[in-house]
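Give me C-alpha cells for this 333-residue protein.
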Amino acid sequence: MRKTSLSDGSETLGQQNSSGGQQLAPVVLFVYARPTHTRRTLESLAGNTLAAQSELTIFADGPRADASPQKLNEISEVRKLIRERQWCGKVHIRESAVNRGLAASIVAGVTEIVEQQGSVIVLEDDLETSPGFLQYMNNALTLYLDCQQVMQVCGFSFPCGWFPPQTGFLRASHPWGWATWKRAWRHYQPDAERLLALVLQGDPRRFDLDGYSFHLDELQRNADGRLQTWAVRWYASIFLRQGLCLYPGRSLVRNLGFDGTGENCHSAAAVYERIPITDSVKVVPQAPVESPRILKSHQQHYRAELQRWTESRLVDRIRRRVRSALRWLPPGR
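Here you go.
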C-alpha cells in the first residue's frame, strides 16, 4: 500500500481505480474511539461492489481534555485500524488533535467535501452497509442531481411491510448512511433558535410527521442548549424548503451502535441492530411526491419508540424508588 503525506497533515492511502465512466461520489466516514464498531463499518464498506472505485475520507476526532487512559487507548486503536488496509480505491485520513465533537465534525467535514466535489456520501463509525449501498447511493445522486426538491438520499429505512416499493420520498431526513449535493447542503442552517421559530410559524405538527415523531422536541432542546445535534437542524432546513428525502423500501444500512457507546444512542433501542438489510435496491425515476407507505412506516416506528421510551422511564422510576426504600431499611433487614 502506498502512503502519501499531504501538506495539511492528512494522509492518502492507495491509488483509485477507474470507475468505468460513472462519476462516483466521495465517501466520508467519521470515527472516534470505537474500534470494534469501526472495524465492522469499514469491513462492510470494503465489501461494497463499488468500494474499489470509490474515494474515502476518514475524519478521526481527537481526545477530550479530560479523556481517560482507556479512552486514549481506544482512540489510538481506531487510528491504527483505519491504516490497517486500503478500505477503498483511495483513502484520505484526516486526524484532529483536539476534540471537535460529532456534530461539529460532521458539519465541517460534509461542508468541506461537498464544496470541493459537488456531492458526498456520509457514514458514521457504527453503520454496517450492504454490498449494494454505494451503488444505490451513486445511482440516486445521479438520477436526482438536478431535482431541487430532492435534498437527501437515505440508506436506512424502517420496515415498510410486505412487498415494499423500491424507493419512496419522505419529508423527514434520517442520518444513518445518507448522501446529498452541494446545491442542497448550502441550505443547511446551524441556528437552532431561528429554525425553531420558523417551524413554529408554519405547521409544527407536520414537522412531527403529523403528530407522531419527536423532532420538534429535539429542535427545542437544541435551541435551549440542552442538546447539540446536527441531524434535526438539517431536517428542519429541508422541511422549511419543502424538500424531500429519498428512501429505499428495504434498508441498506444497519446501526450497530445501540450498546451505550455512542453519543446519542441508548441500549433501549437495540432493536435497530436486528433490522434486516437488503443486498441492493433499484433506483427508478419517480415524481418527487411523499410516499404514504414510507410515511406510515416512520409513523409506526415513532409510535413504538414512544412506547419503549415510556416503558423505560417507568422501569427507571421503579428502580429509583426501590433503591430509595432499601436505603431506609434498618441494618440487618
